[in-house]
Amino acid sequence: MKIYPIKVVPTVTEQPWGAGRLFSLYGRGEEGKRVGETTELSPALRVAAGDFQGLTVSQLVSRYGEEFTGGEQKGLPYQIRLMDTMHRTPAQIYPDEREAKGMRGHYELAAVLRAEVNAGLYAGLRKGVTKEEYVELASEGKLSHAMYFLPAVRGDVFFLPGGLPVAVGGGITLMTVSGGSDERYPAEGNDAEKNYSYLEKDLRAMKFVGQSEQDFFGKVRRFSYGPLNAEEITLEGRWEGVTEDKLVVLFFAEGEGVLEAGDEKTAFVPGDVFLIPAEAAHFRMEGNALAYLFR
Predict the structure, then answer these.
(1) Residues 242-278: b if buried by 16+ CB within 10 A, e if exposed
(2) Domain residues of the chain, as ranges?
(3) Which of 7, 101, 190, 255 is deepest in the core (most CB within 10 A)?
């Protein structure tokens, strides 16, 4: 297949809790609109430019197989979204493995790109909350009163397994990477009693704690969850990367520079998402930026 940095076109969703920062930070949507969520990577998204312009990610997987995804993956293993909140989102539940209709249970990595003072996430049901209390609070849209609050600052990374009720507090911009089942159920509202069955009562969110490591090319934080391997890269000049026979996905959160794969170079700006086919073997970045790498 043709090797080059493959840029995909995101989709934009307005939400009542959305703010305007996804426009100001990453050019998503229109100024003044309540853009609450964007999809940055999914099988249905299309390629923005180059030889594969107009093809969906799913079509690339079908057409090129292991050349594109690598020997271990048979398809796109995860999806990437951006989320930005003006106020708290309604709580949702992703099913765990038992409830995922034969699919792998949900897992999610949530990286905090910016956060106002005292902002945070709500995740998991506090110990001792009864079903009756849960249903009453959820029916009234007040389930956050019975959930754990996780303070969040820029750079925090949370792991959110399926079975947790999750809501995002106001004043946060997140990048989420989710895999397994992508079914979502409202934890609040008229279906609260039915969706109580999806809860894992003793499950908790996990916060990644780690220090950046300085290597030859810059600083990097590495973290993994289930089949997902991720790196947060502080690019300071030039970076030489390898695909390790896997599809590499790059999200540029800050900064500008140039990305090269095969014999082609392309400029990147904040918010860009690129796919590097497994067959590329090597790729290069140059500039000053904060990037997230997934494989």
Answers:
(1) ebeebbbbbbbbebebebbbbeeebebebbbbbbbbb
(2) 6-47+76-207, 213-294
(3) 7
Answer yes or no: are the C-beta atoms of 158 and 123 closer than 8 Å. yes
Q: What would the pLDDT profile of 262-287 be if each residue is shown by its tens digit?
A: 989 999 999 999 999 999 999 999 99
For residue range 56-98, list pLDDT tens digits in order.
Answer: 999 999 999 999 998 876 778 789 999 999 999 999 887 655 5
Q: What is the pTM of this model?
A: 0.90
User: Residues 83, 18: contact at Cβ < 8 Å?
Assistant: no
Q: Which fold is adopted by the domain 213-294?
A: Jelly Rolls (2.60.120)
How many other C-beta atoms lie within 10 A of the C-beta of residue 154? Answer: 13
Angle at 250 between CA 122 and CA 242, to 5 degrees: 130
Topology of the domain comprising 6-47+76-207: Jelly Rolls (2.60.120)
The CA–CA distances, whole Å, from 270 to 122, 195, 217, 252 equal 27, 38, 20, 5
Distance CA 243, CA 29 (A): 32
